[in-house]
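Quick one: structure for this chain?
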Amino acid sequence: MTPNTHRPSIAPPSSAPAPVASWMARGSRVEEALEIRLKKTSLLDRFMGRLKGCCPFHFASGNGFRQEHSNCEFHHLADGDYLGFKHLFKFQNYSNCFHCGLPQSNNRNAEEPACHSGFKYRRGQKCEFAGFIFKVVYALWTSKNATLLAPTLGRPKGWDNQEEFNRWVIQEDKENGRYINLLEIFIAFCTELEESDPNYFT
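Got it. Here's what it folds into:
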């Protein structure tokens, strides 16, 4: 009888480094995503530095910078369920400021804008930007300006209703360098203003 000479097949040596290559590729993508987010952090720092103390409704309606004041003529942009909108946002610890939505530096990743770095969560201390971005983005929705920005945010057809917008605005795509969509649409609006006037935020 002829002896059985069959041997189990062995994967070629060239396949062994594949997991390492995959790990390196993922590491590169993570670094690229962080770099994209840091560029957006720089934009947020510049925009918010100019917007400190300004009326969010004047700004969202395209009427420039006016100090925050009561009885704003554009306050109707907050009509509806603004508080319900604000309460949609449940941030994880050290991800975003609970008061204004700006990113924080989690594990020293430098994502927190410099203009916000001095704020500490201590009794009696108030975030200088509290509520501003939430109000601006809500006003962008009620004024229909959000729909005009939608194509720049990968939403060529916009949103069918506020419920759909609400589901979208709380999402985040960190792996692709995107902050929570609340910040993405805010950045898109500010960027459009600056493209129309390069000196808008100076």
